[in-house]
Amino acid sequence: MSDSGAPAPKTPDELRLRSVEKEALTSSGDGDPGFFELPVVEDTNKNKQGKRPDWLRVKLPQGKEFKKVRSIIDEHDLHTVCESANCPNMGECWSAGTATFMILGNICTRSCGFCAIKTGRPQDGLDWDEPRRVAEAADLMGVQHAVVTSVNRDERKDGGAPIFADTINRLHDLGCTVEVLTPDFRGLREACQTVFDARPDIFNHNMETVPRLYRRVRPQADYQRSLDVLQWAKEDGLRTKSGIMVGLGEKPEEVLDLMDDFVEIGLDVMTIGQYMQPTKMHLPVEDWVEPETFAWYKEVGEAKGIEHVESSPLTRSSYHAEKHV
User: Fold this and answer.
1) Is the pLDDT reported for residue 222 higher than 90?
2) Deepest in the core among 49, 66, 162, 184, taking most CB within 10 A?
3) Which of 199, 76, 74 is nearest to 136 (CA)?
């Protein structure tokens, strides 16, 4: 398998995290102006992005169902990755009455170069009532398939895994199938096992990019460690899923090599989507990948042995998630 070659990340008790500033900075890119921006990377892009291609244009969120979902989320004091990560499919999904719940708060302990979610030190402790509120919101929305993700909580040795487990159990009690999109829990098997034991219908952990770009894209992550987490889930009998973004400077042959690693660990579902820069403080778009290339990736990935590859410019981890069970 491929290896990023990066030094082993520190353990949770070795981390020193700084607090989030109270005031939000003004957005200067494609993101929501309400998000706190960090100078994640220096913009070294030599390519001129120009305007977005036509195939990346989406309609603004609207409609009665969209407003209903937003009201339920707000009333239950919940977060969605749809909003926090500026997902381009939010209008489509929310108008269909579905949303991806983001648990463990909305402040992440990591500073990935692609992500619009706030970075800093979360409030101490866990919100043990959060699983109940997620289940109640899902019930009001009438969802049949729930997707649950989270920020990283590296300041905790359990990574927040107990909240994942309780949320899965409560959603199963409603009769929902559940997909979880988890962090790597810093490779701590006990935390991962807590989630495995709750038996999500799909266990998803995103690789995000090819090994060569990890230091730039996911500086606090490790390629092999993420593969290990997915392999552990598969060995525990779970249906597994992972995704990457393209347009970050990867080469097609690197994507194919990553697919080979997925085949080796028995991955069931892969997602591939176009990276879009949330703000100018985040990684630039190196390339707008043509729809034909996404179609080719799907064909090649499934030919290699991945059961289902969801691949298009607007594909995100949770897009059409109900089809992946």
Assistant:
1) yes
2) 184
3) 76
